[in-house]
Specification:
The structure holds 2 protein chains of 2 kinds. By secondary structure, chain A is mostly helical. Chain A is built from 21 helices and 2 strands. Chain A has one domain. In chain A, helix 14 runs antiparallel to helix 19. Chain A starts with a helix and ends in an 8-residue tail after the last helix. The longest helix of chain B is centred in the C-terminal third of the chain and has 31 residues. Chain B is elongated and about 65 Å long. The chains are: A mainly alpha, B mainly alpha.
Chain lengths: 505, 115
């Protein structure tokens, strides 16, 4: 039975996308089907987390080809929790899309593409094969390319072009790196690569191919100095699309970095560690400075993705049990909070016609409930107790203090303060100050759907960040168990290579 | 043979990078195509090249005779070529639309979303 728990979160979005394509004439079917499929995927992914937490690993050898010859699908605790939280975002944003995505976009197959995106993201989290990971990346990218440039406006096309070209280059680097690894080890199964590399440690090509993968995954994750496409493109599409991109796509890059350096490249990690540490600190700092210099809500939020990615990479660079657990906790917290903030920015656009901070104001008076819905995720991102961001940052800083990495800890704390500064800037400008008299801010004309569709997912996500803050212990102990698995790659290797080949009926 | 192809891969990466650094968006597309072909060739060669040793099982055996060319990189390259072909088609369409929207093929005109 276990194998179904792994297959269903993968197959369901694909089947859903095909059904939606077949029924493309009915927009009502697109809406209902898209939301239903995304929600069902979320429920099934929770079951996957439950199964994985019981069984430690769920492994499928696709087509009953024995590892390392066939493609293995592997779920450990880390990938299971990533699948669950990204499917959660998939469900919430699908509901939000009902309120924002207009009929024109729906006719251009918005929901099928959206489900293919979730399909690609879940696949990338669950695969145990390096070349297969490349294919999942492409599945995810093709869907995201269309989603980002779908509107056909000048900004969308321009931002889309930058996004497409840099992500294509990242895929090419990945392919080259995977090719070199295959040429030298003769295998593509990540567990088998890890096993082979641990027997041939100090070869020059290991470092070079690991650097190619670092650049490729770093480009996708948006770490310094590869992040430039991110703030140049994420603010151009509708908030629904930016929100799902902000929540999921960069995190797939982070996930791949974690998988590469806790499994395949363990033998050379000590040499790479200083580099990753420096990149993490620079990512945090440049991201937060970029955010401080901007005056448009979504551009500020885009730069904050970059700076927060730095915290997660910092967890990888520390590589202690606490740091990895903190990084996993941070990933979960960040995906929820960042998606939520982008969704709030879409509501601001709907009410005021813009999210340029110079043009909007007075929202505290005209929509106090929206102010509350912004306040919760914004100050969670800034790390105010008792919200989830506080515990994430607290654990990360504690992990840094334990290994006496003073500079990184100082940078992390400083970046936290500057994050809070950006959030208070948005708060003071958009919510607190009076509406500028010389700007005529009108609500959007002809909105696509009822406003309640936008309020409900935002409220649900805000409540979940409070719940993680107040009752975060189960999630944190789960993160600790996941981190223990990451630190013990031998378990992963033997789970994949020695798993019984089960023939699926 | 590998040495020759290694040089070719280097030339493709170099010319591709050069095209990427030019200011025209059409050359941007050409650059991406060249680099992706370079990566495909790299993967193709990575398994080692053996002339005239196909991985064919003789009718009276169960395994191909000892040194045989590895077919897996070729399968991988085939996948990568197909993906690259689709993405290039999309990129060309996107570049055309972006050119129509911005009205210029100079990269310097594409700075509206940056700052």
């Amino acid at each position: 039975m276990n194998e179904y728990s792994l297959l269903l979160p993968l197959l369901l979005p694909l089947v859903g996308a095909i059904c939606l394509l077949l029924g493309h004439n009915s927009l009502a079917f697109q809406r209902v089907g898209g939301v239903a499929c995304a929600s069902l995927t979320f429920i099934l992914s929770l079951y996957l987390v439950y199964v994985v937490d019981q069984a430690d690993f769920v492994v499928i050898q696709v087509g009953a080809w024995e590892a390392p010859f066939g493609i293995s699908l592997v779920a450990d605790r880390f990938s299971a929790v990533m699948v669950a939280v990204s499917s959660f975002m998939g469900a919430a944003v699908a509901v939000y899309a009902l309120g924002e995505i207009d009929d024109v976009r729906l006719r251009k197959f918005f929901f099928p593409l959206y489900l293919v995106l979730i399909f690609g993201v879940n696949g990338a989290f669950l695969t145990g094969d390096l070349f297969n990971l490349y294919v999942w990346f492409e599945v995810m990218l093709i869907a995201s390319f269309v989603l980002i440039s779908m509107g056909g406006g000048k900004g969308e096309l321009e931002g889309g072009l930058k996004y497409v070209v840099l992500n294509l280059l990242s895929s090419i680097m990945f392919l080259a790196g995977a090719g070199i690894i295959y040429g030298q080890t003769g295998t593509l199964n990540m567990a088998d690569i890890a096993r082979t590399l641990s027997m041939t440690p100090d070869a020059g090509w290991v470092t070079s191919s690991s650097m190619l993968l670092l650049v490729s995954f770093g480009l996708k994750a948006g770490i310094f100095p590869f992040f430039f496409w991110l703030p140049a493109s994420y603010h151009t599409p509708p908030s629904t699309v930016s929100a799902i991109f902000a929540g999921l796509l960069t995190k797939v890059g982070v996930y791949a970095l974690f998988r590469a350096y806790t499994l395949m490249f363990v033998p050379i990690f000590p040499q790479v560690q200083p580099l990753i540490l420096v990149l993490a600190v620079l990512t945090m700092v440049t991201g937060v400075f970029g955010a401080a210099s901007h005056f448009d809500m979504r551009r500020i939020l885009s730069f904050h993705i970059v700076s927060q990615i730095g915290y997660m990479i910092l967890g990888l660079a520390f590589m202690t049990p606490l740091a990895l657990a903190a990084a996993i906790f941070y990933l979960v917290h960040h995906i929820i909070v960042k998606t939520n903030l982008f969704l709030v920015s879409g509501m601001v656009v709907r009410l005021k016609g813009s999210c340029d901070l110079a043009k909007v104001g007075g929202l505290l008076k005209s929509a106090p409930w929206l102010a509350l819905l912004f306040f919760i995720p914004a100050f969670s991102l800034g790390g105010i107790p008792p919200l989830s961001g506080f515990w994430a940052k607290f654990a990360m800083v504690k992990a840094g203090l334990q290994i006496e990495s003073w500079i990184a800890v100082t940078a992390a704390l400083l970046v936290g303060v500057l994050t809070l500064f950006s959030m208070t800037k948005i708060w003071a400008e958009a919510f607190w100050k009076e509406q500028p008299a010389d700007v005529d801010a009108q609500p959007l004309r002809n909105p696509a759907g009822h406003f309640a569709y936008m309020v409900v997912p935002v409220a649900v996500l805000a409540v979940s960040t409070i719940l993680i803050g107040l009752f975060g212990e189960p999630l944190f102990s789960f993160s600790e168990r996941a981190a223990a698995q990451l630190l013990n790659p031998q378990e992963y290797i033997s789970a994949v290579l020695q798993s019984q080949v089960e023939v699926l009926p | 043979m590998e040495g020759l192809i290694a040089v070719l891969v280097g030339v493709l990466f170099a010319t591709g990078t050069y095209c990427l650094l030019r200011r025209s968006i059409v050359k941007l597309v050409i650059g991406v195509i060249l680099i992706s072909h370079g990566a495909n060739l790299l993967v193709f060669t990575s398994g080692g090249l053996l002339a005239g040793r196909p991985a064919l099982v003789p009718s009276d055996g169960t395994v191909p005779p000892a040194p045989f060319g590895d077919p897996l990189p070729q399968a991988m390259v085939l996948t990568a070529i197909v993906i690259g072909f689709g993405l290039t088609a999309f990129l060309l369409a996107l570049v055309t639309r972006a050119y129509e929207a911005v009205g210029d093929d100079d990269i310097n005109a594409f700075r509206n979303t940056d700052t």
